[in-house]
Input
Amino acid sequence: MARAAASPVSLPRADASPATAIDRLSTLLERFRVHAHLFHAGPLCGVTRFAAQPGRAFLHVLRRGELVVTHRGRKGAARKLVLNEPTLLFYPRPLDHDFHNAPRDGCDFVCATLDFDGGASHPLVRALPPVVALRIDEVEGIEQTLALLFAETQRVRCGQRLLADRLFEVLLLQMLRWLLDHPALGGIHEGLLSGLAHPKLARALTRLHERPGQAWTLDAMAREAGMSRSAFAAEFKATLATTPAEYLLRWRVSLAQTMLRDGAPVKRVGDEMGYGSAAAFSRAFTQVVGASPRAWAKAG
Output
């Protein structure tokens, strides 16, 4: 991860770490999709400003050259980043950022916007830091994706934009996979990604994601993790900064919001989320959102 500096940054090298033998991302990205849109390929010179827009993320690939990045309205991000190696620069949430390049030394970029289903309420958006900067040679397995992406952006061919968009989505998935194996190097110290990086908690979280309507108890979650009830509760709170019950509640409500946006009837949504009655579903939804499911859906 790049560090704030007034001089060129040396990004740390990561040691390989074993991944847990479960798929920790597919269910998340199937239920809360992301759509990439290529908008720039080539050099940038002078000052280029990228304005924050609600629900809009950015993924920049610095292919070559040196770059100074500054952040306005910083929201927890470093004031300045100095990059002098090929780098992935990811902004999961709206954050004004400026690229500064000397006109004679234009950098080569490929850039895309990312639209996450649910915007700021997308579980991964909430879990990530304001900016992630990763040196390209650290992220194992992305070489072929980048080679295809660069090839598609060098000249116009049939289906170029669609293919480039899909390649950016693949690149994002590969980056998230790497972050699960190296959370600290990505600036992730607590929250969902830290939980998914935990060899035991990840099993319980993945089951919650796959089966949100199951009648989950603390004992049942702890069994999935292979831990005692007390150890699981303590480790969960320390790693995700919330309790298992609160996490399950917010996960169910996030899914319910997605279903309601898609036009699903309130009763069916409550049933699928595991609530025994419409009143129980409404209470849970209102606790998180501040409005009943029907009122929230009606408000659009």
In short: The chain is about 40% helix and 20% strand. Residues 1-20 have pLDDT under 50 and may be disordered. Residues 160-181 form the longest helix (22 residues).
